[in-house]
Amino acid sequence: MNDLISDDPAEEEQSGGEVLELTLPEEQAGQRADKALAALSPELSRTRIQALIEEGQVSINGDALGSASRKLEAGDHVRIVMPAPVPSVPAAENIPLDIVYEDEDLLVINKAAGMVVHPGAGNWSGTLVNALLHHCADSLSGIGGVVRPGIVHRLDKDTSGLMIVAKNDKAHRHLAAQLSERSLSRTYFAVVLGVPMPIKGVIDQPIGRDKVSRLKMSIRGTNLRDARTHYFVTERYGEACSLVQCQLETGRTHQIRVHMQLLGYPLVGDPLYGPQRTALSSKLKKAGYETEIIEKICNFSRQALHAAAIEFIHPRTETALEFEIEPPEDFCNLLKMLEE
Q: Checking CA distances to 323, which of 20, 90, 101, 112 falls within 20 to 30 Å?
């Protein structure tokens, strides 16, 4: 198999990007074009290949490939024109980032509580994506043909902690596959109302969009998807609250928040699923906490959830990487108040 990027400057200038030349080997003969080409060019996802075919950027033996489902033959000469990535819509903004690790393929970010990940309604600026576009500048090679960072998994606005961001298609594809295969490990810490019993277990309940509130998720929602959370109580504060370690098998929206509420131990400070102020105050009062401390705990301004650790395989070097990060000051102060 010949596999090369065109080194003809005129050709690249004309196409506005790179040109990939392939000769189909025997082992890919008889396969759909999109499947075969994705296997031969790991820097391009199957979805990206399909888009390039639709744009007329893929030719077989000199003729435009009209369909992604066409079966290819051994010896077919394939030419893929990859246009230069177009600028992303969000604007780059000089926003400080806490970068735990960075190389040519990815970053590991310690996201601050209060930072939105993606621009959207009510949050068109000041997001993690805006900050990453500024920080990465020319180091992004494009995700799906667009100059943008590849968000592998998300954290809610008011959840703090570790996130992985891909800089190129190959890294994004590799990391997304690990997430799908559940080999990318994520560990969280949550402060919940009460003490879960048993103190260790697995919550296996599918989650979908709530039928009444579009802001919430529910086990009785629409378009339910599998969701599994492993939990373990690591610290208990009388019968009032406890610190729970949660490990995700899946990564559904609000998964830990919904699952802990389902067990009857909602996260302290959670505005959507958390305990009523009266319930939290009552628990703390029965446990003997002073009025001033009870008031401060009840006024904790976000869901007490922190993404503390992450493990994955590097998409280029295939080495195992593991990162841990301490909770931010507000979370640590909450624990100190509960320990008194």
A: 90
Strand 99-102 relative to strand 86-87, pairing: unpaired
Superfamily of domain 3-83: RNA-binding S4 domain (3.10.290.10)
Q: Which of 198, 153, 167, 128 is nearest to 310 (CA)?
A: 153
Q: Say if residue 92 is exposed, middle or buried (CB neighbours under 10 Å; 0-12, 13-18, 19+).
A: middle
DSSP character string of 259-320: HHHHHT-PBTT-TTTSPPHHHHHHHHHHTT--HHHHHHHHT--S--EEEEEEEEE-TTT--E
Spatial neighbors of 180 by CB under 8 A, at least 6 apart, are none
- Taking every pair of Cα atoms in the chain, the longest distance, rounded to a whole number of angstroms, is 80
What does the pLDDT read at residue 10? 38
Q: Which of 34, 76, 156, 210 is catalytic?
A: 156
Those residues whose C-beta lies under 8 Å from the C-beta of residue 137, and which sit 6 or more positions away, are: 92
pLDDT digits (tens, 9 = 90+) for 88-140: 568 889 999 999 999 999 999 999 999 999 887 667 789 999 999 999 887 87
Residue 156 a catalytic site member:
yes
The Cα 183–Cα 249 span in angstroms is: 8
The tokens for 164 are: 């992985």
